[in-house]
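Can you give me the bound-state structure? Components:
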Amino acid sequence: MLRNLFYTGGTLDRAAELRRDPGWLAERLRDPTSRVVPVWRDRNLFRSGDEPVPAFLDGDRARAALDGPAERVFLGLDGDVAYFAVDQSAEEEPPAFDGASLLDLRQAGPFLDQSSGSLLAFARGILYWHRSCRFCGACGAPTESVAGGHIRKCTGGSCGREHFPRTDAAVIMLVQKPGPDGGSALLAHQSKWMVGMWSVLAGFVEPGESLEEAVAREVLEETGIAVADVRYRGSQPWPFPASLMVGFRATATTFDVRFDCGELDDCRWYTRAEVRAFRDNPRLPRPDSIARRLIAEWLAEE
Ligand SMILES: [Zn+2]
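Here's the bound-state model for the whole set.
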């Protein structure tokens, strides 16, 4: 199984039972020890330095962020200290201060410890959901944040529907072909990817199918390859903007690749020796991605 994936391994106690206690939440919002994880237009705040370290707001800066009109979400507790995510996107200027700057988490993620990466992914992902769920999908009335920011409730009188934070499940899979020298793996390239990057296949899960069925359907649709023996390998939050990547291995039962009717620019079988020779072009996916880990796991098996 794939362990210690980036953006997993959070150490915050999410304290879900306390989210619905308005009195307790109000105390934490006033508490001078509470800390703020700021997010500005999907970017997180970091202390400048050789390697990025998350910058939180505390003291007066935290007060100012928590007292304002910005969307805020109770993330959880580190011991007795409450952490809130605050969306400062409405500010014209980013909330940077001396020694801190904003970065896309995808730039900084590979350099962060797991707990920090998980916390920033949580803050970014849930605030993105708030921005995209401001109106009720059922009746169109505005929604309001309740339960510490973990539910948006419709304000339409006769509706009142509760909306929960949305995560889109996507399957991502390394398809292998048995053969001499350990066989080969099916890798693809899309034009919207980094130049020269080859990766495993992925796609969103559709209503009415299991994860394993989604794997088989996506591989067949995109490459014409039929698969069997679909095995779960691990999962990774991927709040870019709102996915959960669910990783699998599968074994091909047909081998002729066809990719002319889908999203792929190119797709082919690679041996381990060929993948080990990758440098810049062709190159492997980002080091923080489950795609990279699925390929690394396969490479290590010879
Ligand atoms: Zn409604």
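A couple of observations. The chain has three domains: 1-15+22-132, 135-165, 168-299. The helical segments are 22-30, 59-67, 105-108, 114-132, 211-223, 272-276, 290-299.
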